[in-house]
Amino acid sequence: MALMKLRLGSTNADLAQRFGASPTTISHAFTTWVKVLARELACLVYNPSIAVFKKTLPEKFQKPGYYNLRHINDCTEIFIETPSDPTIKAATWSDYKHHSTTKLLVSITPTGHFNFLAWGGRTSDVHLTRESFYDILERRDEVMADRGFTITEDLLIRNCRLHIPPGKRGQEQFTKAEVAKTKEIANLRIYVEQAIRRLRTFRLIEHELPISLLGNIDDIVLICAAL
């Protein structure tokens, strides 16, 4: 039942009819089981050791400049039911989406597995990254992200390196080298976009998440990423 609700986004009323129970029982059972599932499946969302990383690095990343690329990062937003509390509504409103959302930062390994998740309300990609991501970094790690992640100096302080597409810096056109670099990074960053699309096959977080489940969102997202 819990897995059906995650995958199909079924309402409690629908599941109550299917399983011959009251909607209240379904609600209590779901919130109980997401805690159990999150605890049991958390081991599947982890940062592999450097030895494992080196051994499993896909051939596409075995090229000069990307041997130490351990994290490919991106952010996405999950729609949530509009809160009635004005404070919570202000903290979750997205001007870009014109809807209440919660922002999700994900990191995957070059093999496509999730190795980090963090979420927040109305915040920038950079702020969410600074508040949550840096603790898992090790010396000489390399991170790939979109050009909106202006964290180059943050990573240099930690003896790490950032790969982002080159900016125009006031130029009218990219140079041939910048065009080639942009294409190269785009061909590798596509894996995090595919990972997010896989995550969104779970309809509970693809569509509007009920406000009653907002307190369980960390467990819900963790289960979906692990599965």
From TrEMBL:
It comes from the Eukaryota. GO terms for molecular function: metal ion binding. Residues 74-227 form the DDE Tnp4 domain. InterPro entries: HARBI1_dom (IPR027806), Transposase_HTH_dom (IPR027805). Its cofactor is a divalent metal cation. Residues 1-41 form the Transposase Helix-turn-helix domain. Keywords: Metal-binding. The keyword Mitochondrion does not apply. Transmembrane segments: none annotated. This is DDE Tnp4 domain-containing protein. It comes from Exaiptasia diaphana (Tropical sea anemone).
